[in-house]
Specification:
The model is unreliable at about 5-40 (pLDDT under 50). The protein is globular. Strand 30, helix 8 (about 490-500) and strand 31 form a beta-alpha-beta unit. The protein contains 13 helices and 34 strands. It has a 17-stranded parallel beta sheet that branches. The protein is an alpha/beta fold. It folds into 2 domains: about 80-330, Single-stranded right-handed beta-helix, Pectin lyase-like (Pectate Lyase C-like, 3 Solenoid); about 370-635, Rossmann fold. Keywords: Aspartyl esterase, Hydrolase, Signal. It comes from Belliella alkalica. InterPro entries: AB_hydrolase_fold, BD-FAE-like_dom, Pectin_lyas_fold, Pectin_lyase_fold/virulence, Pectinesterase_Asp_AS, Pectinesterase_cat.
């Protein structure tokens, strides 16, 4: 940014006035829906989905025309589809535009570009934007927003001041001041985005959450320049982001304070070796060291070393870091739901449990352990599917199958762990690949975690996935009566509960499909089967999923225990356990019940294996072999 005077509110007002006077850039409306060929007068009345296309196949040729035609304060959400093309437009979305999703064809296909900068026509920083967003409750997906002025001074690509703004899979390209994420009470959510720049290329006063983004530095300088107001609790939060740089860049600071109370936090981020050892800069003003809040937690990479960090930055502990999730950061006096009844920032996912975090913990207990990193195999094909549609999103799964003539005709649903709150299906991709390589069809899935929906939502999801795989058995060369469910840790608890509640309408209310959710066997890998049990050590995480503590919600703690439901109709179960006894809670009691009904069960214990052993060698292959032998025995 540089000279602070250029950021005056007067300059901003002048810029907006000039824009208003020159907004029409060779405007042209097409006003024809390609769906039916009928001509409609859209201007000033639009309250339904519309299409922008440079080739004339949509409703508008220009994005600004589409924006100008939208009804103010829409009573229901609409989508503006922006088809593939390079749109050289300087765009303004006024504060009267709300509840719109702007959907592109992908960051490499839908590109919004302009080239204003502060050295052009006496422009101030806030005049230089490519896209200015003043409206609220807006989403932008699958597009690039760029300023191509080059390294000529301040040149903003995105100027965003509205509240409840979501940017997903968007690329923001520029140099100095690429992104103005601002608005004193504004909340922004950036997910899976790419952001590049040189100096202060993420700056402003918004509460902005950056989830799984790539932050790329193009020169030795500063990434952030927050101007968080004193009365705002959170400024910029970066979670699970990857910080990269051009090859010749070696000294980049995480941030410096544009205003006295700047707040910026990096959590679970991969910090490249271009990050300056000091981490943070005071912008030449020692007095701000007492007022800013700059903090880090659980970062990794060559730039995460804190030995030389400035003394006035903070290192959070796990309790302090636990508040840095979107639903906590975005808390306020305002409603959190959009018009569809879901949080405006989307589904909250806890990324604290990953292969990296599991590896750090495992190395402390078993230094020789090696994480299994398979992500592809030549002889295995993969397809991504949506197995269940909710009102606001689809639940996804990945299906792996061998492309060799070795099919066993058996399908496995794979359920990841993470304390019912964290984790992802990607954790079980190496296992799915190896099972597929051996002739099984393996389907790791996502399910609703406790921050999105509490018990019994996850069980309903898993049963829906079983029914989906059975309905598509012929497509994957599976025998419909040969579907198993496998889960690890919390996923083991879920898999076992899903398996032993076959036929229960309480856990699968679709009466005409109850039989479709049944399984031929269960593989429980270090998952408990009883919550209220002398061997159980479950506490806060279980309480979040079960809707309260044992004292507050005893019925859920009992109902969520597979031990409560096991009986004569339960399928065979294989338990694969490590050396931590609390993850065996209820196992032996459940086996006694199965024995009384002559239902087969088996226990395999790895006495040298800490929890999460299934993700690591030397245990990974032994787990796969145990699963293969169990299914072969049950099939007989």
């Amino acid at each position: 940014m540089g000279n602070k005077s250029r950021h005056s509110f007067f300059a901003m007002a002048v810029g907006l006035l000039l824009l208003t006077c020159s907004a029409n850039l060779k405007a042209q409306n097409v006003n024809a829906y390609p769906k039916d060929g009928k001509i409609k007068d859209l201007k000033g009345k639009v309250q339904e989905d519309i299409v922008v296309a440079k080739d004339g196949s949509g409703d508008f040729l220009f994005i600004q025309d589409a924006i100008d035609a939208i009804r103010v304060y829409l009573p229901k959400p609409i989508t503006v589809y922006i088809k593939e093309g390079i749109y050289k437009e300087k765009l303004l979305i006024p504060g009267t535009i709300t509840n719109v999703t702007f959907m592109g064809d992908g960051p490499d296909k839908t590109i919004i570009t302009f080239d204003d900068h502060t050295g052009k026509n006496k422009m101030q920083t806030f005049d230089t934007y490519t896209l200015m967003v003043l409206g609220s409750s807006l989403s932008f997906k699958n597009m690039t927003i760029q300023n191509t002025a080059g390294k000529v001074g301040q040149a903003v690509a995105l100027h965003a001041e509205g509240d409840r703004l979501v940017f997903e899979n968007c690329h923001f390209k520029g140099n100095q001041d690429t992104m103005f994420a601002s608005g004193e009470n504004a909340r922004h959510y950036y997910k899976n985005c790419y952001i590049e720049g040189t100096t202060d290329f993420i700056f402003g006063s918004a509460t902005a959450y950056f989830e799984s983004c790539q932050i790329h530095s193009k020169s030795n300088s500063y990434i952030t320049a927050a101007s968080t107001p004193d009365w705002v609790k959170h400024g910029y939060v970066f979670n699970n982001c990857k910080l990269t740089a051009d090859q010749d860049v070696t000294e980049v600071y995480l941030g410096r304070p544009w205003r006295d109370h700047a707040k910026t936090v990096f959590i679970n981020c991969d910090l490249g070796n271009h990050i300056h050892p000091k981490g943070w800069h005071n912008w030449g003003r020692e007095e701000v060291e007492q007022t800013v809040f700059y903090a880090e937690y659980n970062n990794f990479g060559l730039g995460a070393e804190r030995t030389s960090r400035v003394s006035w930055s903070k290192l959070l502990d796990s309790n302090q870091a636990s508040i840095y999730f979107p639903d906590e950061v975005f808390k306020g006096a305002h409603f959190q739901q959009d018009l569809l009844g879901k949080p405006w920032y989307g589904v909250v996912k806890d990324s604290s449990y990953t292969l990296n975090s599991a590896t750090v913990k495992m190395k402390k207990m078993f230094p020789l352990a090696k994480p299994v990193l398979k992500d592809t195999l030549i002889d295995v094909d993969e397809s991504k599917v949506s197995y269940k549609s909710l009102s606001y999103r689809d639940l996804e799964a990945r299906v792996f199958e061998s492309n060799k003539p070795n099919s066993k005709g058996v399908g496995l649903i794979l359920v990841h762990g993470g304390g019912w709150q964290s984790g992802s299906l990607d954790l079980l991709v190496p296992m799915a690949l190896e099972l597929a390589n051996r002739g099984f069809v393996a389907m790791p899935l996502e399910y609703r975690l406790s921050r999105e929906a509490i018990f019994p939502a996850a069980i309903l999801d898993i049963k829906e996935a079983i029914a989906w795989l059975r309905a598509n058995a012929a497509l994957y060369n599976i025998k419909p009566d040969q579907i198993y469910v496998l889960g690890c840790s919390a996923g083991g608890q879920l898999a076992t509960l899903a398996g032993v509640t076959s036929g229960s309408e309480d856990f699968f209310p679709k009466k005409d499909r109850i039989e479709n959710s049944q399984v031929s066997g269960i593989i429980n890998i270090d998952g408990i089967v009883a919550f209220d049990h002398p061997e159980s050590g479950e506490g806060t995480l279980a309480a979040k999923w079960l809707g309260g503590s044992l004292t507050d919600n005893q019925s859920n703690w009992k109902n969520a225990s597979a031990l409560t439901h096991a009986g004569k109709d339960s399928p065979p179960i294989l338990f694969i356990n490590g050396n931590q006894l609390r993850f065996h809670a209820g196992r032996d009691d459940l086996r006694e019940i199965l024995d009384s009904y002559q239902v087969f069960s088996k226990v395999i214990e790895f006495e040298d294996a800490p929890h999460t052993f299934w993700l690591f060698e030397p245990w990974f292959d032994r787990v796969i072999e145990s699963v293969e032998v169990f299914i072969a025995n049950v099939s007989k």
